């Protein structure tokens, strides 16, 4: 029986591969700050910093221990009072839609869920037992005991029939507890059709801390059981996204795409390409930054800041909002930018823990020089000024950097990435990027 089941799964995957070899999978993607009710601008910045610092702790802790494809919508969460990006996933049979945070720093895809009558009921939840395609992962299996150990699978096994449980612990003490299962995801294709992807690992979270406005997480980190691995195995070894302005409303979105990027996005300006170091910080998307410049001046930042082997290094992360820099880099960047803000009134908004904020109601942005990140090999990423002098409140803007301490992993967050197309070529281990309106 087991052999027959495996054969049927193989046939299904081959049929999918054949039927959709000339299409692209895509998901709509919107920024998470698009949920209501809206918080005050200052509270929003405070929340962003709190979440980013907790997330940096989690990532640091974690470090220590030719086909077409499909697309998903991707957009800002501004109207939701959140500082990340949302997409919708469709899970189970019959299929149900859930709003999830798109996170390149997480391996586990999970949704709020009920299993055997236990689970969250405040929002719409996934009722696993009502999905005919849901298959629990048994607690006695190698998958549970060995393969999912990095996803915090538990060793407890009350009976051989019990599901594999997890207790996903975050550095700030928040948690997600539930059981692992496999289910079918339904995805939209660029040719207007839909495809079913069977056997995707999903966490059925029955308790724990929820993300405001979201039903769960879409884990896009690179590991054997992440959604990325499953989707790229079918649609080709690439995925891409274009992050709309983080202050966009919920009606503005772009796409998270698995497979080759549509040709319309390859037009001028030409993309720049850098190496994607997939083995330096396992599951995370490490990039080899060698320096930061302001205008024509390369900042004096010690090389140790960029050296992974000496507890430095840099990752690109869609789940972090601001850009976190090791202390030496942070001081060099903010002092370098501050010189161009002399005469602009510096303010300290109440309850905003960010250090450098200014009354820029009469400030000409053109006076602020271009900041650039320099990659090994010569590529240069030059974000728009609004990505590093960010809106905090009407007339008030802040430098969008946070000190991560020392030594520390540097994180280029989603606000710095906005209004650029990013393509992750996992087969070639390259990262390509270019400015874009994302519209």
From TrEMBL:
Signal peptide segment: 1-21
Entry-linked Gene3D superfamilies: Acid Proteases
Span of domain Peptidase A1: 85-434
Keyword set includes Hydrolase: yes
GO biological process, one term: proteolysis
Family: Belongs to the peptidase A1 family.
Stated name of the protein: Peptidase A1 domain-containing protein
